[in-house]
Design goal:
144 residues, mainly alpha, 4 helices, 2 strands
């Protein structure tokens, strides 16, 4: 089981850091794939994140990667181990909630369809969050 946890942890770290890098790219003005990343209703964005918020999201993704690394024992956490366990479970809850969605514009139970974001949310973003939630649960539930 320890080997599976390590594989899950490494996979999570790679994905989370890649997503963090993508958010930094967008915060610095990059436009690739940006038009498909925010929910819209009638062609209008439902949220307007600032560059600062985009950097914050990138930072949280890096923090998530560090939390998973510590929980999986990729570095010594010492007396901080319970904090890494708690953080990993928080990350699980975050991905689970993102998977469920807000019941309107994103997640498995969204009711707004027909936009570019909705297309990608159904086929990529929400399933990815579901897989990440499962991987985080595997890492969080194990012992070091």
């Amino acid at each position: 089981m320890q080997k599976i946890r390590l594989i899950c942890a490494w996979l999570l770290v790679v994905v989370l850091l890649a997503l963090a890098g993508l958010h930094v790219y967008w915060a610095l003005g990059g436009t690739w794939a940006k038009s498909a990343t925010l929910p819209t209703i009638g062609g209008r964005r439902t949220i307007h994140p600032s560059r600062f918020i985009t950097f914050v999201v990138a930072g949280l993704l890096v923090l998530g990667a560090a939390t998973i690394s510590g929980r999986a024992g990729l570095f010594a956490t010492g007396s901080w181990a319970p904090l890494f366990e708690f953080g990993a479970w928080l990350l699980f809850v975050a991905f689970l909630l993102r998977t469920i969605g807000n019941l309107r514009t994103f997640g498995f139970f969204k009711t707004v369809h027909g936009s570019t974001f909705s297309f990608w949310d159904t086929r990529l973003y929400t399933p990815l969050c579901a897989v990440l939630a499962v991987l985080v649960a595997i890492v969080a539930s194990g012992s070091e």
